[in-house]
Amino acid sequence: MSDKIKSLELPHGTLNFPAFFPDGTRGVVRCVGAEDLEDCRVPGLVMNTYHLNSKPGPGTLRAVGGLNTFIGWNRPILTDSGGFQVFSLIGENPKYGEIRSDGIMFRPDSGEKILFTPEKSIATQFACGSDVMMCLDYCTAPDASPEVNRISVDTTVRWAKKCKKEFENQLASRKIKGPKPMLFGIIQGAGDLELRRECAQRLCEIGFPGFGFGGWPLGPDGKLLYDLLAYTADLMPDSGVKYAMGVGRPEEIVACSKMGYNLFDCVIPTREARHNRLFVFNPECKDLSELDLDRPDFYSHYYPEDEKHWRDTRPVSETCDCICCRRYSRAYLRHLFAIGEPLAMRLATAHNLRFYTKLMELIAARGSR
After folding, report:
1. Phi and psi dihedrals of 281, rounded to 5?
2. Are 324 and 350 in contact (CB under 8 A)?
3. pLDDT tens, residue by residue, 142-186
4. Minimal CA–CA distance to 224: which of 182, 267, 255, 186?
5. Dist. CA 18–CA 175, nearest whole Å
């Protein structure tokens, strides 16, 4: 559509869509530094408010000038509210806390009680200096009852109103020159389509420039809930950002991009790299512009520790321009993994991240045809 969003102007630069943000939960993308991320053309990072609120803490982040200064990163950062992590912990053990109307009463390690409110979540995200902030929402478990999902939607909307009010108060108290940070809402409702639609409508009435898919995107069989994701994407305004939170397999990103989603994040590329699993585009396709992303075999996996790579002087991928493929051979990468050298995980992580940013470039090119 003509009004489909192409980019956002944010405090730390222009974000072009589609975009994939690697996971930097605690203020770091594991095994790589900011210079590696820039080399891989990573446009932005996702970090977690709950973990950052614990360490290094909002006081430290305010004192050093925010996350970007703290980690040496000059591009956008999106901070999640932290609610998902807290709900996950409470779901594993109810002793960790409970959901209240005004927020989440959390008892980490059965220690001192912490009330995590919408206002506190937004204040912490401002302390982080985030470019994009997420509303605190009530995420339910996949097997939650209809009654709990009903409460989840009502609570999510109520907290979204409080988040936006605190967001506007924080903006008013600051003299921000240039682009301002943004606040996104999250659509809950589990698998109940009516609840999803109601939640989206009520959040749209509050008004946000972007919306995330809330809840679990995977079914009991581990497969992506394509129909539910597509339905939720249609509920989001085309003029705003459509954020497929936690969706990260290459074929899932391709499918969700066709639904209209334009922002993605996941731990998959970095986690897989640390576990000897690299992504490569179809080796039979030397010209990536000819790659058919709709084919299930448009990419494959490469395992650097395999014995067959012992004397292979080729790069991991001849179509990749990451530092690993530009400078090192398959034989050398295998050697690094064999001796337990940390450089192996750095190079593998850089390769996987470049695969993902290249995938975004290919999706964008396909969309412009």
Report:
1. -70, 160
2. yes
3. 888 999 999 999 999 999 999 999 999 999 999 888 999 999 999
4. 255
5. 30
Amino acid at site 229: L
| Direct distance between the N- and C-terminal alpha carbons of the chain, in angstroms, rounded to an integer | 14
Contact at 8 Å (CB) between 62 and 115? no
Token pair in block for residue 335? 């050697």
Average pLDDT over residues 251-272: 97
Rounded to an integer, what distance in angstroms lies between the CA atom of residue 179 and that of residue 165?
19
Closest CA to 202 of 168, 153, 242: 153
pLDDT of residue 369: 59
Helices 146-172 & 193-206, crossing angle to 10 degrees? 10
pLDDT(364) > 50: yes
Active-site hit among 23, 80, 131, 137: 80
Give CA separation, 219 vs 98, 222, 345, in Å: 25, 5, 31
DSSP label at residue 5: -
Stronger pLDDT, 103 or 67, i.e. the higher one: 67
CA nearest to 20, candidates 98, 94, 76: 76
- Half-sphere exposure for 10 (CA within 13 Å, toward CB): 24
Q: How far apart are CA 273 and CA 186, in angstroms?
A: 30
Do β-strands 19-22 and 182-187 pair in parallel, antiparallel, or remain unpaired?
A: unpaired
Burial category of 339 from C-beta neighbours within 10 Å (exposed 0-12, middle 13-18, buried 19 and up):
exposed
* Token pair listed for 141: 């478990």
Asked if pLDDT for residue 112 goes beyond 60, the answer is: yes
- Give buried/exposed letters for 109-144 (b at 16+ CB in 10 A, else e): eeeeebebbbbbbbbbbbbbbbbbbbbbbbbbeeeb
Residue with tokens 């079914």: 219
Please tell me the distance from the alpha carbon of residue 146 to that of residue 252, in angstroms, as a whole number.
28
265 in catalytic set: yes
